[in-house]
Amino acid sequence: MPDVNTDLGHLKELAQNKFRSFGKEIHKPDRNFLWFLRIVASAVIACLLSVGLFLLLKAWPALYHTGLRFLYTNTWDPVGDVYGALPVVFGTLLSSFLALILSVPLSLGIALFVSELAPRRLARFVSFTVEMLAAIPSVVYGLWGIFVLAPWLRTVVEPFLGTYFGFLPFFQGPPYGVGMLAASLILAVMITPTISSIAREIFRAVPSNYREAALALGATRWEMIRLSVLSASWSGVLGAVVLGLGRALGETMAVTMVIGNRADISLSLFSPGQSMASVIANEYVEATSDIHLAALAEVGLLLFAVTFLVNSGARLIVLRLKTKGGGR
Amino acid sequence: MITGHLTPFLEARDTRRRVSNLVACGTLTFLSGVAIGALFLVFGYVLYRGFPAINWAFFIETPRPVGEVGGGLANAMVGSLIILLLASLLGIPWGILTGVYLSEYGRGRLGSAVRFCSDMLSSVPSIVIGLFAYALLVVPMKHFSALAGSVALAVMMVPTIARSTEELLRLVPNHIREAGLALGVPRWKVILLIVLRGNLSAILTGVMLAIARASGETAPLLFTALNSRFLSWRVDQPIASLPVQIYTYAIAPFDDWHRQAWGGALVLVVFVFSLNLLARSVIRPKMTRD
């Protein structure tokens, strides 16, 4: 018995040696190729890390100089070299949330229309339109905002709101046209394609049994939508909305062109504001002092961190949905 | 009869249900109409204002000095093309190879890490990418350059291309790979010459969409490629680009510059739309055949 065993062991070893070298010869190019791909793909990771790292490096003087005060002081004054990020953070949050409030009903309405109501041709046309809305560059939206939207707001909408709803703090002050309201409106149009295309996919993933069940019980179309489509997909819709928020927070050019660029905190939607992205776009090229550059980089770092958190949150929601089976 | 007794109530309830159904469906239809209206408002106005601004000089002349009427945006169009070309040279191979890695080998931990980072990279605000390229290239080179702008755009293109390539290659049935391997073709050849090459046109769709997106980006170029009033072919110098030029002209107080900004916007929008339409026409027959 032991003899056979050693014999077998010997044979096995022999075979292994033989095939190992054989394998190496054949697979060497394959292995090199795999390593090449690994390196190229890892460059994406390195890229993301170095974005954070370089921002941190650039922002370090300001971080060191002002510390946490940066986050809660509300003066942004490049002339006096005083930098508090609160006004720009406020501007970003306010414009993004307003845009969400406007855009969520609009996007969900479009998504429901496309997935539940429209005949196929019309649905395709509406989807196409929404995709084209997404394709229009940000700077063109900004141009349109300056020359069409802002004058319209200044001469028609804001006087109207001021006259009839002026008792609310949101609608007080002189109508400038450019300002929070204009920025939010433009943002709402820009994030609608994002939210509605994701929501559409989520509604489509709801199994048709659910719909048939509701209809068979005598539900009207709207009841069917409420009972079987919306209730089965609300968490996915939440993910879509959060992704839209992520886009709104970082949107730069259109906002820069219509937000008015004044770093004030005001509840009035008529007054000019400033967002994190727009303050960088406006001041970075003209910044002369090192501390100004560093403060702007710090704003960039903050923006990076916030969008990172928001987007990874949305990704988590969507991924959990996928592992749960999405509905199918 | 009980039902007879209840009939008025049931009828009232049914009317209410029918009315609310009508109202809700009407609202959904109306909201879709709003989206269509928004596109026509924006695109229509760009056409209306941009079309009169476009003439021969617009394409072949560079900007005149401030205050002088006329001139064109040749410098910006050439600049945009140079930046896009450079960005494509870096971004397309990088993106496609990353996508190949993800679909062919990306089951492990490195794969999911790359996928996560690529998703996060695609959601980084464009202005932040601009800051990154500034710190990476402009500071060490000590001046603004077309190269820095292209790197910024390439970084924005990679996640889009990688993701679409991965998704397409995943659709390739495994028996095609197995057929190649069974004939003794090494794996790298199977991947490059069979899997990748067989789906090149579909992959190009993703590439075109990424280029379309990149060509409208302004924020990453603001302080990397900067701007230039002259026609420049040099990669290591500041260069004009269409989006930045539109931005500069839009916020300036001159009517003639506004006119040219609209012209530039029209050129840009037409370019982006045609790339999108081209991409769709490539993918559409493929999808119906499946």
Note the total helix count of chain A. Answer: 11
Tally of separate helices of chain B: 11
Taking Cα atoms only, what radius of gyration of chain B do you get, to the nearest Å? 26 Å
Percent of residues in helices of chain A: over 70%
Oligomer: heterodimer
Q: What is the fold named in CATH at topology level of chain A?
A: MetI-like fold
Number of domains of chain B: 1
Query: CATH class of chain B, anyone?
Result: Mainly Alpha
Largest sheet of chain B: none
CATH topology of chain B: MetI-like fold
Number of strands of chain B: 0
Give the strand order of the largest sheet of chain A, numbering strands 1, 2, ... along the chain: 1-2
CATH-level-4 superfamily name of chain A: MetI-like
Envelope shape of chain A: flat
- How many distinct folded domains of chain A? 1
Describe the structure.
The complex is a heterodimer of chains A (328) and B (290). Chain A has 328 residues and is an all-alpha fold. Chain A has one domain (69-324): Orthogonal Bundle (MetI-like fold), CATH 1.10.3720.10. Chain A is built from eleven helices and two strands. In chain A, strands 1-2 form a two-stranded antiparallel sheet. In chain A, a hairpin with a 4-residue loop joins strand 1 (76-77) and strand 2. In chain A, helix 1 (2-66) packs across helix 11 and helix 4 (120-135) crosses helix 6. The radius of gyration of chain A is 28 Å and the shape is flat. The model of chain A has no long low-confidence stretch (mean pLDDT 89). Chain B is an all-alpha fold and 290 residues long. Chain B has one domain: Orthogonal Bundle (MetI-like fold), CATH 1.10.3720. In chain B, helix 3 (74-104) packs across helix 9, helix 3 (74-104) crosses helix 10 (242-250) and helix 4 packs across helix 6. Classes of the chains: A mainly alpha (328), B mainly alpha (290).
Secondary structure elements and pairings:
The complex is a heterodimer of chains A (328) and B (290).
Chain A (H helix, E strand, L loop, with lengths): L1 H65 L2 H4 L3 E2 L4 E2 L2 H32 L2 H16 L2 H28 L14 H26 L2 H9 L4 H30 L2 H6 L17 H8 L6 H35 L4
Antiparallel strand pairs in A: 1-2
Chain B lengths: L1 H49 L5 H5 L13 H31 L4 H15 L2 H16 L4 H25 L3 H9 L4 H12 L1 H16 L26 H9 L4 H35 L1
Helix pairs in contact in B: 1-11, 3-6, 3-9, 3-10, 4-6, 5-6, 6-9, 7-8, 9-11, 10-11
